[in-house]
């Protein structure tokens, strides 16, 4: 860095701006590669261009210097500087002032070298941005921790990192397109909220000085989107950042992206069709409905299975487990299968823990896990046939939950009872329990239409299609501070 700072000073002393405001550029490197792809070996095009790029390779030797420029999408193009074309002073400045990582602007003719390499033969060059830190190589100084902590460097040197950004953007765009085809309206709802709800999760807390009011960051999109449906926006969705003050591991991040959508006069089965359509559209965009993952091959084509929570758990543990199974019996099942339990958990919570530990990891092919006990989702409506259950499902693919959906609870009396119970749990010390949201209940009291709703984790969907951990799927994930910060 000391040497590079000296070169920056030398540029200024020579009257050259190390960080000009807008270097001339007539063509992208991609455009030159496309337009002159058929230029024969050794030929000159007769076309002058002005190009800009980052220097990722440099070889300075005698009267002819070579470099490779790279632009943002990873396209590269060779650059040639000869004594005869640029002159002695300019060539000497190039050799003494340009380093790997610098952005340079070059004016010259498009040619094909004697080895058939499409190139720009420079007539003049200027610095576009002097890099003060050296680039790492692919084989040293760029371990996983460095890649996620300094993603900007990762993007410079690894095509896989750039591809991840494009893949995630394509997936998000496809989800939007699929919903728009069904006349969904995209909206934005508050991130700062007075009451946290819509999920069972511990929120981040903050303070609004203007009102001298404690606030939380949202843990879900649900409650405001349902207000919109009450108001007459019959098909509504949002793709937004969610914040949960919880653990960090290979599948969880405190800050992540959710898609939630709600449709009037739909139920959990309609929403299953919507979910499948969205995921298949993403698969088709990326080129295959067969996914090779670390958990095995996933086939997205064909029918997706439906598995009840209690029948699925019963089959896995070799004994009949129903909503009426007692807590002591469930604890003995947990002990036999070495599943740790919190002594404060009731029977329904124990069933959910047993299922998530014993059954869920084995569900590699797309499976809608449904018929949950009521405590699993306080915002889902009672089952139409069995009052001991609710109408909700989780979609498991590759042994991991990817999304969830409900036939939504719209009865304000039952919803008030459920949220009151949640608030009691919060008062008793449950940091994840929802609060009683009087405004949301007031909205339901104006008459909400029957509706279905989906929650789809964008990060986990990207993980499914790319087979990476959550830190790789998020462009700039939350990390522990570096030492000294």
Automatic annotation (TrEMBL):
Record's subcellular location: Cytoplasm
One Gene Ontology term of the molecular function aspect: magnesium ion binding
Residues noted as binding Mg(2+) 2 in the record, renumbered to the chain: 401
Cofactor: Mg(2+)
Record field: catalytic activity: tRNA(Lys) + L-lysine + ATP = L-lysyl-tRNA(Lys) + AMP + diphosphate
Annotated residues for binding of Mg(2+) 1: 394, 401
Keyword Repressor recorded: no
Keyword field: Aminoacyl-tRNA synthetase, ATP-binding, Cytoplasm, Ligase, Magnesium, Metal-binding, Nucleotide-binding, Protein biosynthesis
InterPro entries: Aa-tRNA-synt_II, aa-tRNA-synth_II, aa-tRNA-synth_II/BPL/LPL, Lys-tRNA-ligase_II, Lys-tRNA-ligase_II_N, Lys-tRNA-synth_II_C, NA-bd_OB-fold, NA-bd_OB_tRNA
GO biological process terms, semicolon-separated: lysyl-tRNA aminoacylation
HAMAP family hit by this protein: Lys_tRNA_synth_class2
NCBIfam families documented for this protein: lysS_bact, PRK00484.1
Matches recorded under PANTHER family: LYSINE--TRNA LIGASE, CHLOROPLASTIC_MITOCHONDRIAL, LYSYL-TRNA SYNTHETASE
Subunit structure: Homodimer.
Family: Belongs to the class-II aminoacyl-tRNA synthetase family.
Protein known as: Lysine--tRNA ligase
Record organism: Arthrobacter bussei
Top-level taxonomy: Bacteria, Bacillati, Actinomycetota, Actinomycetes, Micrococcales
């Amino acid at each position: 860095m000391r040497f590079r700072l000296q070169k920056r000073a030398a540029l200024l002393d020579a009257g050259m701006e190390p960080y000009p405001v807008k270097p001339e550029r007539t063509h992208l490197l991609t455009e030159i590669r496309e337009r002159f792809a058929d230029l024969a070996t050794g030929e000159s095009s007769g076309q002058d261009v002005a190009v800009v790029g980052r220097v990722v390779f440099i070889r300075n030797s005698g009267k002819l210097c070579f470099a490779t420029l790279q632009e943002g999408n990873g396209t590269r193009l060779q650059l040639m500087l000869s004594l005869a074309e640029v002159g002695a002073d300019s060539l000497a400045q190039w050799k003494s002032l340009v380093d790997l990582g610098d952005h340079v602007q070059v004016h010259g003719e498009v040619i094909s070298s004697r080895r058939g390499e499409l190139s720009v033969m420079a007539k003049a060059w200027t610095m576009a941005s002097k890099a003060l830190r050296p680039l790492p190589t692919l084989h040293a100084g760029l371990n996983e921790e460095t890649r996620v902590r300094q993603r900007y460097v990762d993007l410079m040197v690894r095509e896989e990192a750039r591809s991840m950004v494009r893949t995630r953007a394509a997936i998000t765009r496809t989800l939007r397109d699929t919903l728009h085809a069904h006349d969904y309206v995209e909206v934005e709802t508050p991130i700062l909220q007075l009451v946290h709800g819509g999920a069972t999760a511990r929120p981040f807390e903050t303070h609004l000085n203007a009102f001298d009011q404690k606030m939380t960051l949202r843990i879900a999109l649900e409650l405001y989107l349902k207000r919109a449906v009450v108001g007459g926006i019959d098909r509504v969705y949002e793709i937004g950042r969610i914040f949960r003050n919880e653990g960090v591991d290979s599948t969880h991040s405190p800050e992540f992206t959710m898609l939630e959508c709600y449709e009037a006069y739909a139920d959990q089965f309609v929403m299953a069709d919507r979910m499948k359509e969205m995921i298949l559209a993403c698969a088709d965009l990326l080129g295959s409905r067969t996914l090779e993952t670390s958990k095995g091959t996933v086939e997205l084509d064909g029918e997706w299975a439906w598995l009840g929570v209690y029948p699925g758990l019963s089959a896995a543990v070799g004994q009949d487990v129903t909503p009426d199974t007692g807590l002591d019996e469930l604890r003995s099942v947990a002990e036999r299968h070495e599943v740790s339990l919190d002594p404060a958990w009731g029977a329904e919570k124990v069933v959910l823990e047993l299922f998530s530990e014993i059954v869920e990891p084995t569900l590699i092919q797309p499976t809608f896990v449904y018929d949950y006990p009521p405590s699993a989702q306080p915002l889902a409506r009672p089952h139409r046939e069995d009052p001991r259950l609710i109408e909700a499902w989780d979609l498991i693919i590759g042994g991991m939950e990817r999304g969830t959906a409900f036939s939504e609870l719209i009865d304000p009396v039952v919803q008030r009872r459920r949220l009151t119970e949640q608030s009691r749990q919060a008062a008793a010390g449950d940091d994840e329990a929802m609060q009683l949201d009087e405004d949301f209940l007031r909205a339901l009291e104006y008459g909400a239409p029957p509706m279905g709703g989906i929650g789809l984790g964008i990060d986990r969907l990207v993980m499914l299609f790319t087979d990476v951990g959550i830190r790789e799927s998020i462009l700039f994930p939350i990390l522990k501070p570096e030492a000294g910060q």
